Amino acid sequence: MPELAALLAELTCGDDERAESAALQLAGYGESAFQALRNLLRDEDVDARWWAIRALAQFETLEKVNFELVAALQDGSSDVRQCAAMALCHHPHPGAVSPLNRALSDPDTMTASLARNALIQIGAGAVPELIETLRAGSRAAKLEALRALAEIKDPRAIPPLMQALDQDSALMQYWAEHGLDKLGLGMVYLKPE
Questions:
Q1: Which helix (H) or strand (E) holds 161?
Q2: DSSP letters of the chain?
Q3: Distance from C-alpha of 146 to C-alpha of 135, rounded to nearest angstrom
Q4: At what angle do helices 46-56 and 30-40 cross, to 10 degrees?
Q5: How many angstroms separate the Cα of 173 from the Cα of each of 8, 166, 177?
Q6: Average pLDDT of the chain, as a whole number
Q7: pLDDT score at 62
Q8: Mapping DSSP to helix (H, G, I), strand (E, B) and coil, where does residue 85 land?
Q9: Digit-coded pLDDT (tens) for 82-99
Q10: What domains sit in the chain, N to C, each tagged with a CATH number?
Q11: Contact yes or no for 14/47 (Cβ under 8 A)
């Protein structure tokens, strides 16, 4: 087994293949690797921070790992935010709901999309905040929230999905219909008077 220092050097060497190989091995070093990766998250180099997140994603779900992943959603680099949101797709936990929900408004659309996917993985625990975002978020965040609600298939989303059918956006209407279809409410028949 290579030494921790050698793996950390590989992680930040600038060669993606070597860095990926190192990222896959670092979790085996436990706490000492975690601390070293945590320090890398404060590095000025965007690539170092990105690879630190990538390596942390390989750790088993631990509260301290999740804390670092959530904190990285506020990184100044969209690449790092994207990596953090992707990692949270693989480490879904209720404590990430609020930060991921805020990330639905990220100016980087890929980060917002990955945050949506992470919220879908969290599932029912994300529904109340997604409903609130659908009610009061920015236009882009509303669409991401609606898409997440459509995929989660939680009955609490039925009223906001029905309201979204009245939106003047074809995308909002599409995702509202999609969500209602998944809930078995796609075809609503009205009794004529």
A1: helix 158-164
A2: ---HHHHHHHHTSS-HHHHHHHHHHHGGGHHHHHHHHHHHTT-S-HHHHHHHHHHHTTS---HHHHHHHHHGGG-S-HHHHHHHHHHHHHS--GGGHHHHHHHTT-SSHHHHHHHHHHHHHHGGGGHHHHHHHHHHS-HHHHHHHHHHHHHHT-GGGHHHHHHHTTSS-HHHHHHHHHHHHHTT-S-------
A3: 10
A4: 150
A5: 48, 7, 6
A6: 93
A7: 77
A8: helix
A9: 999 999 999 999 999 999
A10: 1-60 (1.25.10)
A11: yes
CA distance 23 to 30: 13
Supply the DSSP symbol for 34: H
- Residue 128 CA to residue 122 CA, distance in Å, equals 12
pLDDT in tens, 141-168: 999 999 999 999 999 999 999 999 998 8
Neighbours of 155 (CB within 10 A): 11
